[in-house]
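FORM 12-B: Structure-to-Sequence Request
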């Protein structure tokens, strides 16, 4: 597979920022089609629904859609924005970098989800870079930097263990300063929200603040915390319990990631099935389209990213870190069908929440589902910091 205009592992200039082009070899594309044609589905569950995992009925539809999917068109769309690669802390980091034409644009790093990559944010780029074209104000424009986290997408291979979200945060800070930005902010969701909060904890020089879709704060065991809960918070607690009951991949990735990666690296339909989070585990709430899912999974298939993605969970599980309070300016956008951040718990762990929004539509992958709403909330948060 031809991925860059020069080898990502070129050791001659590790801090050099080099252009990058996604150019999947036709042999790799042919191999994918052959594997999909030979798909052997498991014996079906007694009830062909999402109760025990990704059902055969969905996978049959997905196989046919993937075989008909125009990867070259998707590849051209991804390559329509500038891509680069550099080495940070010994690790190849691939990223998208789009500068705004508006003077004084705020530098903004976008940190992606699991099991996503930088393509999570393709629909968000123009909304942020050129707000005027979308009914916004020039002063709300951003330069955007969208890395693939180590082990995800084209930030491969992972050269050593220990890539916790805190280490990723430090690498992203170095990346932003290497690009010449004296100050910047971050938006993140899922794994990216954890990276964003770790940047808040580190509070590096020039860090403006973090905007996230989730603050993963849970009950501490103190009964007094529950005295201030609102009715919607109890619904949020029920959602937490449901998520824990279906999110078994957390345990698998955090315990035997290399074993998990064997199947995901050899079988494209296994990788797609394991990406059931895009479907909100089949609960009927996800607005992510099958075409978007296939684009996401194709990127991680062609990059052979399954092992690095899975091992990131083990790296975090093995990290020994004391609980800390994030004091950086923090904004939260809670979407109706996503993890429901509970403000009482979040404020215990984050002392400077200055922006809080709720939306009645959208879920865990708001950048894919509701890019206009998300872009507007990101603009509002950083405008509030600027105007404070």
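FORM 12-B RESPONSE
SEQUENCE OUT:
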């Amino acid at each position: 597979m031809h991925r860059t205009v020069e080898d990502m592992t070129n050791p001659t200039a590790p801090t050099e920022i080099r252009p990058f082009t996604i150019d999947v070899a036709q042999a790799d594309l042919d191999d994918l089609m052959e594997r999909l044609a030979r798909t052997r589905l498991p014996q079906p569950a007694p009830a062909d629904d999402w109760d025990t995992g990704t059902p055969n009925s969905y996978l049959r539809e997905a196989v046919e859609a993937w075989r008909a999917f125009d990867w070259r068109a998707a590849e051209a769309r991804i390559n329509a924005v500038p891509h680069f690669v550099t080495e940070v802390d010994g690790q190849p980091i691939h990223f998208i970098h789009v500068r705004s034409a508006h003077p004084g644009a705020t530098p903004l790093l976008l940190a992606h989800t699991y099991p996503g990559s930088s393509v999570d944010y393709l629909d968000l780029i123009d909304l942020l870079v050129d707000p005027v074209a979308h009914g916004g104000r020039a002063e709300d424009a951003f330069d955007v930097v969208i890395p693939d986290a180590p082990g995800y997408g084209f930030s491969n291979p992972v050269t050593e263990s220990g890539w916790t979200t805190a280490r990723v945060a430090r690498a992203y800070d170095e990346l932003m300063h290497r690009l010449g930005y004296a100050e910047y902010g971050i938006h993140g969701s899922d794994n990216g929200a954890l990276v964003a909060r770790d940047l808040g904890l580190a509070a590096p020089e020039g860090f403006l603040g973090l905007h996230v879709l989730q603050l993963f704060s849970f009950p501490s065991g103190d009964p007094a915390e529950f005295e201030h809960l609102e009715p919607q918070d109890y619904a949020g607690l029920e959602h937490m319990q449901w998520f824990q009951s279906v999110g078994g991949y957390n345990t698998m990735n955090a315990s035997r990631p290399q074993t998990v990666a064997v199947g995901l690296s050899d079988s494209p339909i296994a990788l797609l099935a394991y990406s059931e989070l895009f479907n909100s585990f089949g609960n009927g709430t996800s607005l992510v389209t099958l075409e978007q899912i296939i684009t996401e999974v194709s990127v991680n298939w062609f990059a052979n990213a399954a092992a690095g993605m899975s091992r990131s969970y083990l790296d975090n599980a093995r990290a020994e870190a004391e609980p800390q309070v994030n004091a950086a300016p923090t904004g939260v956008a809670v979407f109706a069908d996503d993890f429901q951040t509970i403000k009482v718990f979040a404020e215990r762990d984050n002392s400077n929440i200055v922006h809080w929004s709720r939306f009645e539509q959208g879920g865990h992958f708001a950048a894919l589902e509701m890019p206009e709403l998300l872009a507007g909330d990101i603009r509002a948060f950083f405008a509030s910091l600027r105007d404070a």
